[in-house]
Amino acid sequence: MSEAAGDQAAHRDPFVLVHGASHGGWCWVRVARLLRAAGHEVFTPTLTGLGERAHLLTEDVGPATMVQDIVAVLENEELRDVVLVGHSFGALVALGVADRVPHRLRRIVLLDGLVVEPGASGFDGVPAEVIEERVASAKASPSGLAFGPAPATVFGLSDPDDLAWVDRRLTPHPLRSYTESFGLRDPLGNGVPVTYICCTDPPYLALRSGHEIVRRAGWEWRELATGHDAMITAPEATAAELLR
Question: Is the model's pLDDT at 77 over the cut of 90?
């Protein structure tokens, strides 16, 4: 390897991949493998109260907790020039991280992400019937703190093995992270370049209201012909988009 090639390999941007509602860091395993094969450091943290950290759910877990989860990774791993990827609900977390530590980020990629106006809550970006269903689910739960996960079919999955894998890994999602504002600043992204990747086949209609915000912000817009859980249904195409 030449000295120039060695320097390039040594300075490849690290990726931090943030999962969506009811998911965990586990959902990125296929994409993370491809990014690492391309020579990147990859981190797939699980947000507090979800996945293998579901046992940590308390009434205090909300947007601030989840933003701190990711900020702590960036700070403790001493990461710079990060490509921060937020999938679905994780887009709000990624934008919140940009408000806290923009100097650690090179760019943000929102993969079929939930986007709301500055100061709005997650529930401000989804249809009324989704809100009603999730609030009712949380009220019916033993703790009242989290709503139950949707079936994996909702996320555009069809392969029987993928459906079984995702259904058994999904966990209830903290309600407070949708009812409480992330307090996002204006402009969204806090000056960090943002790319939005819209999954189109099938489209996840619950996120449609945020698309106008994305276009108004002037962010780069791309489309990926796969379902909402693109990291599972199309890992190669997803990794290729992230590496562009």
Answer: yes
